[in-house]
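dumping this here before i forget
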Amino acid sequence: MAVNKVYPDAKAALEGVLRDGMMIMAGGFGLCGIPSALIEAIRDSGVKNLTVVSNNAGIDGVGLGVLLDTRQISKMISSYVGENKTFMQQYLAGQLEIEFNPQGTLAERIRAGGAGIPAFYTATGAGTKVAEGKESREFDGRTYVMERGLFADLAIVHAWRADTEGNLVFRKTARNFNAIMATAAKLTVVEVEELVEPGQIEPDQIMTPGIFVKRIVKLEKIDKRIEQRTLRKRAA
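structure:
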């Protein structure tokens, strides 16, 4: 019997999934490839005390910034947070816990979680504050820090194209953290720009197999924001 993975909207796609205190992975890099509709549905649900794994927290009032505005996030596991004043203010006021990660370490923690690897060793951060409180070992004369893999209760990701079985294609840099996060959660919900029937995506083009995806929502509108507009000076 075929399973229908397609839901009418983001609210329906998250129904029965959300609860207080859960860990959520949110794809994207800056504002590129962020699952905006699903983030807004989480905001509207009112769940709180969330731990969110994301490279960054969007900007003020956009992306994960909307969940910071409503104080629904209690902890961020992130790499870069420099574009969000609300993030900074809540952290400095002791209202938000942050677990900082070097960017490559964060990516590998997520990939490891999706591959069923509970921990790994990396030289990144050895001898710095990143290593404080963590196990260290020496291999071939070099010190390595043990990092734990990450596996969330829920992953929310944004894809360019999907078929109704959940096979995903990401567009260019919007692939970023989305592809690995889709593998590293008990339940993965995807918002997509284009939805096609099975067989309409060439097998070699599939970046994330549908076995990882449980729920899909087709976006009716797409608002792609520019985080930092940079223009080339016009020639004289």
